[in-house]
Amino acid sequence: MKLTTVTNVSVDGVMQGLGGSDEDRRGGFERGGWALPLFVDEAETYLSEVYHRADAFLFGRRTYEIFAGSWGTWEDPGDSLIWTALNTRPKYVASNTLTDPRWADTTVLSGDLAAAVRDLKAKPGGELQVHGSGALIRWLLDNQLVDEIILLTYPVVVGQGTRLFPDSGPDTALELVDSRATANGITMQVYRPSGRPQYATATAD
Asked: Which end of the chain has less neighbouring CB within 10 Å, N or C?
């Protein structure tokens, strides 16, 4: 399976609390719910299609609990590709502390996570998707386990909160695979990691 990360970010890179005011208040975050007013029509259709093509999902512990407490408890609306994908396909959660996952068809990955992810990627299928799970995404990138990155960037500067990438960390070059935009300004880019970036070198005058 191809490992694809899917992240909703603001223009300033914030990924915290996009879904609601009380979704994630870590660090005194008070600006939750910034994505939902913009998540309509084209963006909703695009993301629904992304979820629909997943063969399995991989989550970090915190994102898993947010999803399990929402998508995992809601009744089937009958017309949601996202609900159907999340509730009918295998889910894996990277955690050394979670012992009793309550969401059906969940497997906890503990111990050697890199080996476990490589085993998942070796299985037949299309996509193993990682949604949210910022710390996990950064770890997967650091360990060269990511095949594609989908970024949905919303036309808003949140001004506080956890960002997808920290102020310092490993560098990665990205190859642009696809790019599109919605009428209300959400851009969707698909990238493939392509090794280290190239840097300009000093030249003699």
From this structure: C
How open is the CA angle 20-23-26, to the nearest 5 degrees? 125
HSE-up of residue 131 (Cα within 13 Å, Cβ side): 21
Cβ proximity of 31 and 159 under 8 Å: yes
Ranges of residues in the chain whose predicted pLDDT is under 70 = 204-205
Rg (CA), the chain: 17
> Considering the domain boundaries, does residue 78 fall inside one?
yes
> What pLDDT score does 170 carry?
87
Range of the domain at 60: 2-193
pTM of the model: 0.91
CA neighbor of 150 nearest in space, from 20, 15, 12: 15
Q: Per the domain annotation, does 89 fall within a domain?
A: yes
Our count of domains for the chain comes to 1
| pLDDT of 6 | 97
Q: How deeply is 154 buried, as exposed, middle or buried, from its count of CB atoms within 10 A (0-12, 13-18, 19+)?
A: buried
DSSP reduced 3-state for 130: strand
